[in-house]
Fold Autoinducer 2 import system permease protein LsrD.
Amino acid sequence: MSDAAHPIKMPTRLKDRLTRRPGSNLSWVILAVVFALSVAINPAFLTWGTIRLQLVQAALIGIVAIGETLAILIGHIDLSIPWTITLSGILSADVYAAHPSAWVPFAVVIAVGVSVGLVNAFGIYLLRVHSLIWTLSVNLILQGLTLVYTNATASAPSVPPVARTLALDNWGGFPVASLVWAACAVAVILALRALPFGRHVYAVGSNELAALMSGVPTGRTYVVVYVISGLCAAFVGLMISGYASQAYLGMGDSYLLPPVAAVVIGGTRLSGGSGGYAGTISGSLSVILLQAMLVSLNISEGLRQIIFGVILLGLVFLFTRQRK
């Protein structure tokens, strides 16, 4: 990829934009309001058992949303997540059944995640196909590959023990899934705020051409962002197989839009260059609490989807108005 070989001094205007990271206070206010409403509707939301369940489910969305946050920060999106999750979950279970080693599931996660990430970076950066079209097409291709591989009947009967450990076990009284999410969150926040990679992400999202002329390795930034996104989705595929104690077709279908909603609620601008992962954490928790609150109201699935969609549209409108 054609990165600039010799970095030059970054323009003051661009530097100013890179250092301007709007807070995500509103997303935390929204989380507090949603939690208060949930408790008012069902006091069981205050019990540790319910909180633990929400933390595990939020961890699944939150880890996927790491890649989505980075993709949106550079002004793009990743819609190949659902079938990256499914393919990774099914392959890790099948390969582990044939070669029962503790490292096999992670090798599958890395192979699937890196492969999908490189394909996405190739199409979006080199071929200049819009990420919305390219990643959605890749998602369809992954769906087809999975159906061919499984003969459209797959439901892996067993999953690697490490998948159950990641999704269901506790450590120090807390769900392992939430601790893994916390570690990943710290890593990505530090990377965005303290490493050159973070400055490159904000530079590409603010103005890609100016970033390239300033010496930012734009091609490498695309590759790293989409490989991270692929790895996060593939890793969550392994975790979901452990959570459900099986790997099955369509296991990633419900992860198409919630991660995007978590990023938007968290205050990251859809056009890129502004935001961060701290807000996505509150966005992930808000999405899960909203879903759980609607379930507790015991209304039909169809009406629940309508209300959830309307609420998300309202929140997106609220953030859009706030930035004007």
Observations:
- The radius of gyration is 20 Å.
